[in-house]
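cron nightly-structures :: item 1 of 1
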Amino acid sequence: MTETQTLLNACVAGIQEKKGRNIRIVDLEGIDDTITKFLIIAEGNSPTQVAAITESVRDFTRKEAHTKPSAVDGTRNNLWVALDYIDVVVHIFVPDAREFYDIDNLWEDAKITDIPNLD
C-alpha cells in the first residue's frame, strides 16, 4: 500500500470513527494544475461534530500514517474545516456549508468514490 493510500484510509477511518457522513474521495491525480492529489469531503451534523471529526482525523493520521497536517483552517467556527496533508486535503463541513460551497462538483472530470455511510 502506498503512503498516500495509507493516508487516505486513515482519514476515512477518522471520519467514520466520529460518525461523519457522506464521505466522498475526489481523485485529482490525472488532472493538470491541481494543488493536491486527492480531496476527501465529508460532513458532520453540527459544529461540535465537525470539531470531533477533525480531531479524530488528526489522531488517525498521526497513528496510522505517521503524519500531521501541514495546515488546518476553520476551527474557529467549525462550519468548514480543511486539513492539508499536501497529497490529501480533507474538507469537513456542516451540511448547509457543504451545500452552499458545493466543492463536490468543482472537478467534473475527476474520479469520484463515495464511501457508504456507517449506520
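cron nightly-structures :: done
The beta strands are 21-27, 38-43, 71-73, 80-84, 88-93, 111-115.
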